[in-house]
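Sequence, structure tokens reproduced for absentees:
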Amino acid sequence: MVFTKKLVFSSVAAAALLAAPAAFAACETLTLGSAISLTGKYSTNGHHAKNGYEFAVKKINDAGGVKIGDKCYNLAVKYYDDESTPARGAQLAERLINQDKIQLMLGPYSSGLTKAIAPVTEKYKIPMVEAEGASRSLFNKGYKYLFAVLSTSEQYLASSISLAAEVAKKAGKKPGEIKVAMAFENDPFSLDVRAGVVDDIKKFGMKIVIDDKLPRDLSDMTPTLTKVKALKPDLLVVSGHSKGAATAARQIGEQNVKVPMVAITHCEAANVTGKFGKTVEGFLCPTQWAETLTYKDDLFGSASNYDKEFKGAFPSYADKLVPYQTAQASAAVYVFKHAIEQAGTLDKEKVRDALTKVNMKTFYGDIKFSEAGNNIAKPMVLRQIQGGKYNVVAPSAFASHELQWPRK
């Protein structure tokens, strides 16, 4: 087996950013492993996730590392580029475990890549804390070594259905009168998002007028949008990762598609506000995390402080929204620190047992794992693009702004 991609070490590739203070020079190094998408279809979010890992490593090391008794460990991460290909990801996971002797793994980007790697980590009984695989089908396989800090995929756009029902009632209509158009990429994540949407549509008795499954290379939505213009739905929901969000935003503008409510996954990761301006005004964007939420912890501080410090460490984000993919990646590293310290050892089985007992508050949200390994303590929220900014509008308990409806 030949591997041509170069390794990237968190403490080497970005030495100026990640060098541990001299006071912690005596700490040993604990290396985590990750196959991540640095090239290929998922590379945008792969880099967001990697930057989140790197930022957390620096914060933890600057605070004295991971402490076990009178010992301390500075974290580092060994990466391989999975090229956004599941088979490649599985190969690299094998290499990290068998050749590099990695005992603790951070997840890849996307549900598809996580599905490819999870059987490998399970086979070797390697605990993996992942932040980017939300598909609920990951958590019905009986895995014992997989732990996910994020909310599962069926929750992503389901709240837009509840919001549409709310709006209908305020307008004097019955929720059952709402017409919904759906367009979902034919991949594990998006199909799980669809399942959650369909469940809520049935609950409210709404009408599905378009139900399109789109190819994985989601570069053209013209047939779907042509039907949208003809059938005039009240709500359009779209899920197709960053490329799908960009395609939808661009073509909705180009084809002058008018829908009172539009909800799309991966808005911020695709930077739709920066690329498409007023076209995306009023779009609803589900998010795992927002800098305006009131979450906080002892390491990162508040959600807003995380946002500020991360932008200071990575200036390329200074004039953009910090994607939730980045925040949850940082949370995954923080969970490992917590579990290792609770276990009081680097023994992988005892770390795994400590992960099952995690119940912690973080800047990203509450984290507690079900027996299946998914986080059951944190809800999704919906942001709406208002004046080029992403403002939380639902659920009402988390809202910082009022919903603007219909979108202009």
Q: What stands out?
A: Residues 8-151+291-368 form a domain with the Rossmann fold fold (CATH 3.40.50.2300). The chain has a mean pLDDT of 93.
